[in-house]
Each structure stands twice: as C-alpha cells, then as structure tokens.
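Observation: inputs received (chain + heme C).
Thought: call the complex predictor directly.
Action: predict_structure
Action Input:
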Amino acid sequence: MPKIFIYGTIVVIFLAMIPPAVIAWARAVNSSQPRIHLIQDMDNQPKFRAQHANALFADGRAMRPPITGTVARGRLNEDDHYYRGINNGQWAATFPPQVAVTMDLLQRGQERFNIYCQPCHGLAGYGDGMVNKRAMVLMNLGVNGTTWVQPKSVHEQQIREQPVGQYFNTITKGVRNMPAYGPQIPVADRWAIVAYVRALQRSQNARPDDAPPGQRVQLQSVSVQMRNDRP
Ligand code: HEC
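Observation:
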C-alpha cells in the first residue's frame, strides 16, 4: 500500500478527533463570553425588557402603567350590593339577588367559616378559637411581649344587630385588629360565610317554634330535662 494512504488515514483520524475534543473542552471550562449562537432565528431583536428604562417616555420607564381608571374586562364590579355589601349608600340589610340562601350555600359557608374564621372566632363563633386560646396563653405568660385582642363573639348583641352587608365588608376589608380576608375568599364564598354566621347566631337563640312541627315536643322535653339536670 502506498505510504500516502497510511499517512493520509492517520491524519484523517487525528482531524476527526478535534471536534469531540473541542466539545469536551467547551463543556468542562467556564467562559465569560456568550455561547456561540449559530442560528439566530428571532432570538435577538431590539426590545425593552420589563422594569428597564426608556428615555422616550417622560417618566423614563419602559413599562407603561395602565391609564387611570382602566378596568380589566369582566372586572368592573359595579354592583355595590354584591361586591361591597352596600345598598343605597348603607350597609345592605338583605342578601343580594344573585345570592340564594339555600342549604347548599349554608353548607359551603360552614365549610369556609371553619377554614377561615374558626381558628380565631371558634367553631360556634364565640371568639374562642385555637389561635385565640394559644395567644391568651402566650400573653398571660408574657412570651416575647405578646399582645392580643380577642376576636369578637358573633353572638354579642351589638354584632348580632349588624346588617349582612357590614359582615360582608368586615370579611372583605377586616376591622380594626382583624385582617382582611377579601384577597383570599372569593365574593360568593364571603356571602356564604355571612349566611352561615347568621345561622350560627340563630342556633344560639333558637325558640322551640323554629324547629319543624314534628320535632318540637321532643326538643321541649330535652330542654326540660337539661334544666332538671342542672345542679
Ligand atoms: C386572625 C384572627 C381572625 C380571623 C381569622 C377572623 N377574625 Fe374576625 N375578628 C378578629 C378580631 C381580633 C376581631 C376584633 C377586632 C377588634 O375589635 O379590634 C374580629 C372581629 C370580627 C367581627 C366584628 C366586627 C365589628 O364590627 O366589631 C366580625 C363580624 C368578624 N370578626 C367576622 C369574621 C369572619 C366572618 C371571619 C372569617 C372570614 C373572621 N372574622 C376571621 C379576628 C379574626
């Protein structure tokens, strides 16, 4: 075989080893240069990035704020009764027409109340939830200077007299030391909770004739027995 073939083959083998060697090297070392970008497509083009400056505008910002008063589609929420609990400039005394107070709504309200309100206000709404109990212990022990305002009982006369719209607002925006739950609880669920708070209040002030006729006698005998059981 002519020597030229042997030498040629050796040279080709060496040349063939260069690309894998370069790739292996490139993978192993760091470089401050941007990587080689052979096919550009539309990857690089003039544009302004979020939060960057743009001298074109008077305020120097590339991002344009929405024009004052802009409302996203479907977010006008102009129904004061439903979205704010306000009717004719006052706290609404009734549920808005789109809220049907049904057993389903009360059950939803009970579930949501037990998730969002019960930790502070307690299962029955007396302001004696677990967070309150724990905070009272910490406060009485003087741990890290704990201070605590007890959650209101929803059975206090003054709270019972509040219209439903005011409860809705209390949940939405919070009140004094109570934080706002509007950002966490959707509007429909807030109304469900309001309905359940009313049910709780009723439950603690029920009269025998609140019960369906068939069960009244039974209830009366239970309450008589409870009275007799007292020391
Ligand atoms: C983190 C604890 C906490 C949670 C959770 C909480 N509350 Fe309260 N709530 C309070 C406290 C504390 C007050 C009393 C605030 C005060 O007097 O400064 C209060 C007061 C209230 C009042 C009385 C408002 C008034 O006008 O005096 C209502 C009604 C009420 N809460 C309902 C709810 C409902 C419904 C939920 C669930 C969506 C809820 N709260 C969740 C702590 C809480």
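Thought: report the result.
Final Answer: The domain at 84-205 is CATH 1.10.760.10 (Cytochrome Bc1 Complex; Chain D, domain 2). The CA atoms of residues 86 and 92 lie 5 Å apart.
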